[in-house]
Design a protein that fits this description.
Layout lengths: L3 H16 L3 H13 L1 H24 L1 H7 L1 H24 L9 H15 L2 H10 L11 H34 L5 H19 L4
């Protein structure tokens, strides 16, 4: 279904993009530092699912529609800004050092998913990057989008998860029960919100 040559070209290109520090990596770093390795992996899984969903929508043509409609782009962007600011506020209001309690990974997964889905830059990235490797003559276009999306999601999960796990291990050792990491994580979320608020479409 996918041209092997294009697949061989896509894998290193996708890994290079996954290794580039960005909002997803910073989010996992913040989650790991505050809530530990399990939360970091859960957040990375949520982000990866979001990336896969973006690729699915691009394959269906919905991503192009969103990118072409300025109002839709702006709505998604400001929902993302509001959600990140809410996460920052919730972090500051937390009375305990997260990482305790069975619900933390579930919350981290949902947060990662929402952060990725409400970042319109991901939509534009998928539309600009993935179609370069899609060959209509090789078979179903949607199927090719899904294969490339799965590879991007897997690479992102491994790399972002590794960053978050490292931050989690260091953070848990350096600040047992401390509020310092809550302030650091809240600052990361607020900085991501500011970054999303000032981004341009191109």
């Amino acid at each position: 279904m996918v041209d092997p040559v294009l697949l061989l070209a896509f894998v290193p290109a996708g890994l290079a993009l996954n290794l580039t520090p960005g909002a997803d990596m910073m989010f996992c770093l913040g989650q790991g530092a505050r809530a530990g390795p399990r939360a970091a992996l859960a957040a990375s899984a949520g982000i990866s699912l979001g990336a896969f969903i973006h690729t699915l929508l691009a394959g269906l043509g919905l991503g192009a529609l969103v990118a072409a409609v300025p109002v839709a782009f702006e709505v998604i962007r400001w929902v993302g800004v509001g959600y990140l600011l809410w996460l920052a506020l919730q972090t500051l209001r937390s009375r305990s050092h997260a990482g305790v309690g069975p619900a933390v990974p579930g919350r981290a997964f949902r947060a990662g998913l929402m952060v990725n889905l409400t970042n319109p830059k991901v939509i534009l990235f998928v539309l600009a990057f993935v179609p370069q490797f899609v060959d209509p003559d090789a078979g179903a276009v949607l199927g090719q989008f899904l294969i490339f999306g799965a590879l991007l999601a897997l690479g992102g999960f491994i790399i972002n998860g590794a960053v978050g796990v490292f931050a989690g291990g260091v953070g848990q050792r350096l600040a047992q029960g401390s509020r310092v990491l809550d302030y650091i994580s809240a600052s990361v979320f607020a900085a991501l919100a500011a970054r999303l608020a000032i981004l341009e479409r191109t």
